[in-house]
Amino acid sequence: MRWRGVPLDVLLAVSGVALDLLTTAHAGDTTYLPAEANLPMGVLAGLPMGFVRSRPVPVTLYLAALLVVTDQLGSYTSNTAQILLCVAVGVAGFRSGRRGTVLATAAAIAATAVNIADPGIALTVNSWMYSVLLPVVPAVLGAYLRGSADPLEERDVTPDALLAAGGVAITVLSTWTTWHSGSQPVWVVGLLAVVGGLSLGVARRLPGLVLLGQGVLLVCADTYLNEAVNTCVILTLVSVGVFAMRVASWWWLVAAYVAGCMLTAIAVVGEGTEVTPFRVGVLTMLVATPIAIGRYLGMRQAAAAAERLRAEEAARAAVAQVRADQLAERERIARDVHDIVAHHVGAIVLRASAARYTAPDGPVADALTDIRETGHQVLQDLRDLLDLLREPERQPHLLADPTDVVRESAERMAAAGLVVDLHLDPATDQAPLTARASAARIVQEGLTNVLKHAGPGTRVSVTVAPEGEGLAVEIRNGRPPTLIERLPSSGRGLAGMRERVRALGGTLSAGPDGEGGWLLAASLPARSAT
């Protein structure tokens, strides 16, 4: 992981050297350096760019010193050093803290001022402005890209489309009659007007970049196309308002306000304009208005987001409360069912046990023993059901292995009079416990239904075999041997089996097999449906 960014650092270093070699390829001798020195000077200027991502401030200080030295030596490498210095300042603004950025920017301003000043000529106001703005702009841009505005979470692009359409409408309708009056070709002016308007479409997502771009367009319009200055001022103020809406930091709001005042002053204040306190107040209020509106809208959006978050938390809390109430009600119902059923089943078990000791050996004794064992199993199942209703997420505890439950059910139904052919694949032991437990319950319920509706003497084929990672259960009974009186049934056995299979994401079918018998088939996947 430490070496993952090395190719990018190497590319930056090579690009820096290549940039200097391209700019000094045809440069000859200077007063202090021969032409052969261009290559080592290019290496000295470009190689440090390989460390600009990890050590931006030291690289910036080095390039500032190199710029001063190359300027004094008259080397053409000073042009490359000036360009790379701005890049390094931007990286310092992005990766370094406030102190490091201020130090790097101050060194870049001083070196740029030395580079601009000609020997014997004092620095003018314009030169100072250029010396300050040239390093400050990339530093501010880098600091902004570090994370001044939070990512826009909403996916609705309607406001963006409206901003873009409104921007294009303003720029085109207010400037198209003057596109031919400037020194630039008509298509260039028209393209800039359309691009300037369309850029508002991404102002909510990239507020700082759009504000910077609108400022550049305003300065260009003030220089080359005065008729479009007012339109650019409007776009700039809109960008300032959107920036204030998206950025909550007061430091950035102050920076946006100062930048808006400066840009508006460039457009409003001319050579013959008299600067009065009233006009200064109007200009400051003009810039403060979109900032106030944008900040108000930003606070409204933040409040709405906080309200949505509170509503979501309240909804989750309500769902959790309902879930807790449901679990409490389930536990109460399960306890009541357990108490009622266990009382009666316990009485049956006790009476069967007492009768077993007084009854002679034979079929009656075997029936009483079966009643007693079945009663014990019912009581254990009731306890397991109560535990499952208390904690639905936990796996149910099985007193016996599901395979043994299937065999015991087949033997019990055979003792009751059914002719049972059991085909139990040994590979079913590798299936998940939930599928095996459900298969056992389906076999129990299916054989019970055959005994109820077809009667003793009916031949039944039971097959439990693997199917993929789950199990397949098939219970097929033939035609009843004689007409019998059907036992009473609630009709809930088949519905319960369907619900059990559906919980696992499987399928169940039941119906006549076309030969006078009945077929029950279930597919039990390894995992529950999501």
Automatic annotation (TrEMBL):
Pfam families named in the record: HATPase_c, HisKA_3
Transmembrane parts of this sequence: 101-122, 128-145, 157-179, 185-203, 224-244, 250-268, 280-298
Gene3D superfamilies in UniProt: 1.20.5.1930, Histidine kinase-like ATPase, C-terminal domain
Domain called Histidine kinase/HSP90-like ATPase: residue spans: 439-517
Keywords noted in UniProt: ATP-binding, Kinase, Membrane, Nucleotide-binding, Phosphoprotein, Transferase, Transmembrane, Transmembrane helix, Two-component regulatory system
Catalyses which reaction(s): ATP + protein L-histidine = ADP + protein N-phospho-L-histidine
GO terms of molecular function: ATP binding; phosphorelay sensor kinase activity; protein dimerization activity
Protein name as catalogued: histidine kinase
Keyword Nucleotide-binding: yes
EC identifiers of the protein: 2.7.13.3
Residue ranges of every copy of the Signal transduction histidine kinase subgroup 3 dimerisation and phosphoacceptor domain listed in the record: 329-392
GO CC entries: membrane
